[in-house]
Design a protein that fits this description.
mainly alpha, 2 domains, elongated
Amino acid sequence: MTVKEFTDQAEKSDFLLAGAYVLHLIEKLAKAEPDCQVSFQLCEMAAEAALSALAEECEQRANLVQGFPLVDGHAYHARVTILVGLLSAWDLSLK
């Protein structure tokens, strides 16, 4: 994984932290939900865009190996499990 790929992935996951923080603020500061609704909707939109891009990438790839196949064996099964979980949860949220 190159530095650019790593930073791209980090930027895509920022919406998770932002969404969790918005929910934390609602609870901790007893703010009304409408006050934070726009911020949380932006986080949801970013999450859906990232999951859509992930689904497209999975469709385009011939396999899910990352880097050199002989070294990837330890992380491969965990990666596939995480991908299946993320894409399944996203699909269920769309229904």
